[in-house]
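Re: that chain you flagged

S.,

Sorry for the slow reply, it's been a week of failed gels. I finally had a moment to sit down with the sequence you sent. For the record, here it is as I used it:
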Amino acid sequence: MDNSSVFWNSSVEELKKGLIEHNDSYECLLCGRKIEKGIIYKEGQTFYEASKYAELHINKVHGSVFEYIINMNNKLTGLTPQQKKLLLLFYLGKSDEEIKNKLNVGSISTIRNHRFLLKEKERQSRLFIVLMELLKQKDKYAPAIIDIHPGATMVDQRYNITEDEFKSAMKKYFPDGREKALNAFPKKQKHKLMVLKNIAERFGSEKIYTEKEVNEVLKSAFEDYVTLRRYLIEYGFLDRKPDGSQYWIR
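Prediction finished late last night. Pasting the C-alpha cells below so you have them in one place:
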C-alpha cells in the first residue's frame, strides 16, 4: 500500500501529528495504517477510543513524528547530517553546553550560530512554500510528478517520474494488468524504480511478514523473487530485521 501522495499533500498540522482525519477513520501518515472511528481498542489492560489509539500507534510504532522525519533521506529533508544531529539534540532538550561536548565543537557560540542558521532556513522555507503554492495557480504546463515514497533511501533524477511515464511503464512491464505478473525485470534504473513501486503496493502497510510470506507475494509477480526482494529493500520500499525473521513496508 502506497500512501506517499497522502503524506506529501498533508498540511503542516497533520504532519506534526502524523495523522490525517477522515470521516470514518484516522490514517497514519507514516505507514498508512487506518484506525476506524467508533471502535474501542485495547492495548495491554487499557482501552482507547480511536483518536487516542491513533496517537498511541504513532508513539509505539514510530517513536515520534520528529524521529521519523529526521531519519528520512537527506535529500527529502534538505538537511545535512550535522543539521540532523543538532536538531535531534535540541529536540531531546540538551543544553548548548551538552551539545558542544557531545559534538566536540569549539564553543557554545558555535552552537548558537547553528541555531541562527536553522532559524534562517525556517524563514526561507516558509517563503518558498508560499512561492510554490502561488506557482501552482499559474503554471499550466507543469507535468504531474509521482510522489517519492517517504522511505526512499536514495533520491536522485531517477525519481523524476511523470504520471504518464508511470502509466506507460506499467503497460510495458505488466501487460496483463498492474496486479498481474511482471514480464521482465528492467535494466534501466528509472524503470526499475517504477516496477518496484508497483510491486510494493501488493504488501499491506500494517502487516509484519515472514520471509516465506514475502517470497510468496513476490513469486506471484516474478520468478526471480530473490532479486525483487533485494531491490525492494535497497530502494527503501521494504525493511527487515537483521536476521531476516520479519519484513514490513517502510
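What I noticed first: The chain is about 50% helix and 10% strand.

Talk soon,
D.
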